[in-house]
Amino acid sequence: MKLENFSLLYPDGETQRAHLSGKNVPDIDMYTLQELGMLEIFNPKATPLSEFFTTDPAVIAYRNETFSDMLNNPVLADTLRRLVPVLQDITELRRLEQDAGGEDTASYLSSMTEIELYITCVDILHKGMVAARDGIKGTAFRRLCDCVIELAESEYYAELNKKLTELTQRVREIRSVTIGVNLDAQLRPAQAGVLSVNAKPFRSGETLDKILRLNFKDDEYTCIAQLVPFGKKQSDNQKTALSLAFNSAINDVYRSSLRSWKKIVQSYVLDNTEFLLSLMPEIEFIVKGTQLQQSLLDRGCPLCSPTLFPAEARVFRASELYNPAVALKLAEGEEVVPNDVVMDTTPENALIYVLTGPNRGGKSVITCAIGLCQVMLQLGMYLPAKTCEISPADGIYTHFPTGADDTIDKGRLGEECARLGEIFDVVTSQSLVLLDESLSSTGSYEASYIAAEVLTGLAHVGCRCLFSTHLHELAAELDRINQQALSSGGVRIDTLVAGILGEGKRSFKIVRAKPDGKSYARDIAERYGLTYESIMKKIK
């Protein structure tokens, strides 16, 4: 199955080599994925998820095609799922053979088993590709489909199957060997060897009676006496010695035919199984990524193909955006609440938003939703929204509440500030920064002061950012922050609010508005009977 520079994830060898060299690879690490909740819903085992991210528009579009084919052709998805365990068997077989080493019969039989597994792989692919061929639209699967069908229907492949069948019949059906032993004048063994290899197992007879009556029936498959090392009360060394002797004899019998078969394996099959094995991480990524997206569709959650903007445009415009990790956890009948989020450089919008609202009002959920949408884009997947116009990010940086070990030495506030400082070491205008309840470890005065400094710095950088916070009074500082940021060439900051319906009910809707800390405080006070009116009633 010769496919030059073939990949399910990269359109050509050049883009794949660029990725492997670190070009067009964003800074999105496994810690960030853990904080966003991505690893709970999608975490391949063969290769860390962080290895698959890209900023290359051509790669993103290519993967969109690949996932589209998987989602629209269940047969194709099932084919790759069935292929994975067979490839895992080949990997394990190679490992065992490498550990064993040598040129003995077991090694040759392992090679034959590998060919059987290879043929199984081709048969699985061929059957699936033929069934799905008419529905395949993407470049990757069209190319793989054409190659698999050409191979499986070729004369060479038919000859390979024929040879395998013949050798299997000769080797797999061996059930016994006939041993000849020459005796000297004292009836002691003088020479021994294999006389024949048989397709039938020998049968045990009533040995003692046969010997006493000297009743040697002309039956070559009836045993009249067991060899001593396989009897009871014999040491392991004795049993091993005879086993080695048998193996050596069988090696001599089949050496020539098995060696010629090994050459077939090395000259053709190993190259092609190597190709399939090299695709295993990509196949697992595609299969599990498809399962994630299909699970969302099965729950009635929309997925959209991204409208891609250049990285320098710094666009994130999503309608009916939702958090896929939350959507997959909801009980049957519950629906995730979608929201519209717009980050861009137009006068009516902003790149940086401060999001305030009541506790458990959906601030963290929407913060992670933005991050997960960006993550799924840069994996080449469909996005959790009705529509989405979006630019790739050169990095995603999060600052969520944590119980880090550094708190012992630095104190919690010191640890939070240290982590915020690390973001400024790497952030650029094309990055996405998500801050959730940052600086919650100190009083509102100190927190608001530091938050204002951080926001001014991010505005100067000009990146996309959502700052979800309990610091409602920070909104009063935004005019000053914006004035300072804009004077230094920075971008504008605006506010968002997680809405409430009254009487403690949350709408989980995010709206463009100025925060009103008093309304949230009154909501909580009413909920616990701590308004002035409620208190006076209790007192009276």
Detailed description of the structure:
This protein has 18 helices and 14 strands. With 540 residues, the chain is α/β, with parallel strands linked by helices. It folds into two domains: 13-172 and 262-287, no CATH class; 302-539, 3-Layer(aba) Sandwich (Rossmann fold). Strand 11 (432-436), helix 15 and strand 12 form a beta-alpha-beta unit.
Spatial strand order of the main sheet: 10-11-12-8-13-14
Rounded to an integer, what's the Rg over CA atoms?
Answer: 35 Å
Which class do the helix and strand fractions yield? alpha/beta
Give the low-pLDDT segments.
Answer: 403-409
Query: Number of DSSP helices?
Result: 18
Helix content: 40-55%
> What is the fold-level CATH name, i.e. the topology of the largest domain?
Rossmann fold
Strand content: 5-15%
CATH superfamily of the largest domain: P-loop containing nucleotide triphosphate hydrolases
The counted number of beta strands is 14
**What is the residue-averaged pLDDT?**
82
Q: What is the number of domains?
A: 2
Backbone shape: elongated
Measured between the Cα atoms of the first and last residue, the distance is 88 Å
CATH class (first level) name of the largest domain: Alpha Beta
User: Main beta sheet, described?
Assistant: 6 strands, mixed
CATH architecture designation of the largest domain: 3-Layer(aba) Sandwich
